[in-house]
Amino acid sequence: AQTVTQSQPEMSVQEAETVTLSCTYDTSENNYYLFWYKQPPSRQMILVIRQEAYKQQNATENRFSVNFQKAAKSFSLKISDSQLGDTAMYFCALSNYNTDKLIFGTGTRLQVFP
Amino acid sequence: EAQVTQNPRYLITVTGKKLTVTCSQNMNHEYMSWYRQDPGLGLRQIYYSMNVEVTDKGDVPEGYKVSRKEKRNFPLILESPSPNQTSLYFCASSDRGSQPQHFGDGTRLSIL
User: B100 and A104: CB-CB below 8 Å?
Assistant: First the structure.
């Protein structure tokens, strides 16, 4: 069975500071994708960043970067220079090449304070 | 503009009254899927479709039906809704074997 675990239900950070959200996963597949999605109060699901498992280099998108540790099955999200607009629920998700199915964690609610 | 469109965005209804949530995508994607989001549980897959006339169950299919008669549309049908189906529903689509999935804006269903 494939699982995604987010052990931090809630986190907070001050504006301009850095915060790291944790995610661990389990899969027996070799080829898969990992994602972080952001869900602001508008409830849209917005893709933040994506990592392909065969790529060793950690993905980066502007202020967002990941620490992908394949052997440890860990996929954390680092948000640098946090902004008020980063306040949202963040979901970690896993998808195998073969099935396209997204398996989500339970989410981490991030609050950015001024 | 590439998008996944769900309707309605909000619906309050009563137990047992059949309802349909529509989903349409304009990206010619083969893969479409429905998820429900509940507090503390994240998003869970209800049904998915890999192409026209091909559908299969996800993790929580009980009480739901789907159809895929056209590539762009993937409606979610609740034949006899019950209060435990009160939830936030998302439709998503993508190319096969390719990510990311594109999500609709969600449908908030309340079954009284």
Answer: no
